[in-house]
Amino acid sequence: MRSPDRRPAELHSVFERSFHEERRALLGWAAGLVALAVTMLAMYPTIRGNQQFSQLFESYPKAFRSMFGISDYTSGPGYLRAEVFSLTAPLLLSIFAILWGSDLVAGEEQRMTIDVLMANPISRSRVVLEKCAALVIGTAIAAGSLWLALLVGARAVHLDVGVAELSAAAFASWLVATVFGTIAMAIGAATGRRGVARGIGALVAVTAYLLSSLAEIVRWLQHLRPISPWYHAIGVDPLANGFQPVHLLVLGGIVIVTVLLAVVSFDRRDLGT
Amino acid sequence: MVLGVTSPAGTKPLTARPGSAVALDRVTKQYRGGGGIEEVSLEVAAGEVFGFLGPNGAGKTTTIRLLLDLIRPDTGHISLFGLDVRRDSVAIRRRVGYLPGDLALYDHLTARELLTHFCHLRGGPPWESVQVLVDRFDLDLDRPIRALSKGNRQKVGLVQALMGQPELLILDEPTSGLDPLVQQQVHAAITEAAEEGRTVFLSSHVLSEVGRVAHRVGLIRQGRVIAVKRVDELRDRSLHLVDVQFVDGPEPAALATIPGVGTVQQRGDAVHLEVTGSLDPLVRQLSRYRLRDLSVREPDLEESFLNLYEAGHALT
Ligand SMILES: Nc1ncnc2c1ncn2[C@@H]1O[C@H](COP(=O)(O)OP(=O)(O)O)[C@@H](O)[C@H]1O
Ligand SMILES: [Mg+2]
Q1: Three-state DSSP class for B247?
Q2: Which of A246, B140, B192, B299 lies in the 20 to 30 Å Cα band around B291?
Q3: Which residues surround ligand 2, an ion (CB under 5 A)?
Q4: Domains defined for chain B, CATH in brackets
Q5: CA distance A24 to chain B (A)
């Protein structure tokens, strides 16, 4: 029980405590994303310039290729797009953010710690904002680990990708995960129910993904694409086009509006009932 | 409002300061699916120890969580220190210590981590002052809270409520589930806070506990406050159940004429009496006889309630 070698944590704020609570999970997710990067990079040397792969994918229907982000598979950016950024990395980051976001506010209510927390002289808005800051920064650390692993690893396996383009893709992945994480957090703040927050957060993420990827092949869905956060993150191909401020601002705007809604709804509710 | 507060036996009379620490004005809070409180009005003077007494489900926790602005009333108004609980929530909470009824703490933290965390959130108090409380309750600071017994968790809850010496202590059933020794420590802490002139609002479902520490008691049942009484007044009317076995005794009927004695029943070789108020006249009479056994017990809460409730009706 007693662990004398563990230094007591000095937690100055709700932000720090929220972070402290998540530190092991965050470490695990970051390690997982680094492992993903290492695995994908390790396979790249057998694929680079491999004519058979190129021909194999050329033979797939165009619709299939665009849905899975496959174009120019054997080039550096093409490989990273198909294997890392078209789905896997932003999806993993989103799952992490949704799991955490759904627990951040609603978890305090369901575990009934909200009573002792709110006995302290801090406003409800501040609680939500500090927890939101923890989520945003925690997700950035996870995404940053992936980015760093890819940046360093790409050099090692001679995968040719621009720093700006790679950074833009990692940045967009972080931002889209933050969107879904804050949505889950907001639903938790509005309902006090972690399960509901988790479920709706995941539903929104999946629906938006389907919309954005089906829109690649279903003509009438195409003009609906901009309502999907996935479109602004990966649909606009940051690995080819780099940072695209307009799309990033759309995602940032969604985050800000969602957080404001979380603050307002949390402020009005009966807590822990 | 300045109340003529009488202190519990053994402590010196308390000078009530002007201004009420707690004021509820016709507060109603109904949960979906029934339950809650209805038209509750209460006023607690600064420096007073107020006992909020009621059986489980009466509405004590609901009332207390309204005071902390955790839940909001349907109608009515609540103020602490004359400030609105919603609008001035943060300013109020700077002056309040709260022990929740269903206490849940951050289980993965140690008591030391939790208490320093809360010190930071409150912008002070110095650790030395917290350490005094820790020593007093003999708390193990360096074990994760999840590894502590229920009693020790409750102590952590008490220390966080007491630290920083808040003007108003709101304690929701602070002694429920604690062993008698710790209960005593809690009572001592409450009495001490009162002696320092701080206000205490504590809920309980145990009449004797409230009688021991409080100046005034409010009775709540089924969401309604049915009586607010000074403790000394309450004591005068409280009911005792007395069983006497005589070696050679009087006719039971003779006992019925003693002041305060209500029902008298012969049960086997024992006589069962219900006594309202002071036991003194009965004990004086009994001393004339040879007894084999004598037992006195306080009735359960429900019986006391009924007795008080009826007495209250008789008066008004
Ligand atoms: N969150 C809630 N939702 C619905 N009903 C509740 C809730 N909390 C309490 N109640 C009901 O309100 C009544 C008062 O409960 P409570 O204030 O907890 O009583 P006490 O603290 O005196 O035991 C009870 O009937 C209880 O079932
Ligand atoms: Mg209760």
Answers
A1: strand
A2: B299
A3: B 60-61, 101
A4: 1-95+166-232+299-316 (3.40.50.300), 107-158 (no CATH), 239-298 (3.30.70.920)
A5: 12
